[in-house]
Design brief:
InterPro entries: 5peptide_repeat (IPR001646), Pentapeptide-BTB/POZ_domain (IPR051082). The protein is mainly beta. It has one helix spanning 198-207, and strands at residues 4-6, 19-21, 24-26, 39-41, 65-67, 84-87, 102-104, 110-112, 114-117.
């Protein structure tokens, strides 16, 4: 499927389960739509003229996939996004507040599932989002808003974290190896169970004025 839509309200089941390649959706409204299992490859949702991104608020994005897409400034607020894939995309300034990546089994037991990899998430908003034990590797997180978010147990390896407030979210048990950690201060961040590589540890100790020999 190859489309060029502008300013359209997308029907609830219009693209459910479809595979859509190299299409443009400028100023389109996907709010409340069912995109379960839908695959977008090489699609553009950001309109440079209006500086507006796609509106996916309250959409059902279960097992939906975005690959090599421009999702800059996209609105994912309150979307149901269990099992979503966002790979090799631009998603600067995207808003994920209230999005759920979680499957509730009971009120006390649940699991998360999301695959957000090799994507530019600079200035994206993940405030209070729960992304535990998810694949989140090789992303750019520069300036991302993460106040109250939980990333515990996730793979954040190979990431870029400048202008990033490590104290604002839960990163316990995360894999941070091979990442540029920016201003990570071990004195103000709970790093229980976190994986770091030798080079990162030397950098962190150096910042504390501690020299490692050998």
């Amino acid at each position: 499927m190859n489309l060029a839509l502008n300013g359209e309200k997308i029907g609830r089941n219009q693209f459910t389960g479809a595979k859509i390649e190299n299409s443009t959706f400028f100023n389109c409204d996907f709010s409340g739509t069912d995109l379960t299992g839908t695959e977008f490859i090489g699609c553009q949702f950001y309109d440079r003229e209006s500086q507006q991104g796609g509106n996916f608020s309250r959409a059902i994005l279960k097992d939906a996939a975005f690959k090599s897409c421009d999702l800059s400034m996209a609105d994912f607020r309150n979307a149901s996004a269990l099992g979503i894939e966002i790979r090799e995309c631009r998603a600067q300034g995207a808003d994920f507040r209230g999005a759920s990546f979680m499957n509730m089994i009971t009120t006390r037991s649940w699991f998360c599932s999301a695959y957000i990899t090799k994507t530019n998430l600079s200035y994206a908003n993940f405030s209070k989002v729960v992304l535990e034990k998810c694949e989140l590797w090789e992303n750019r997180w520069n300036g991302a808003q993460i106040l109250g978010a939980t990333f515990s147990g996730s793979d954040l390896s190979g990431g870029e974290f400048s202008s990033f407030d490590w104290r604002a979210a839960n990163f316990t048990h995360c894999d941070l190896t091979n990442s540029e950690l920016g201003d990570l201060d071990v004195r103000g961040t709970d790093l229980q169970g976190v994986k770091l590589d030798n080079y990162q540890v030397i950098q962190i100790m150096d910042r504390l004025g501690i020299t490692i020999i050998g």
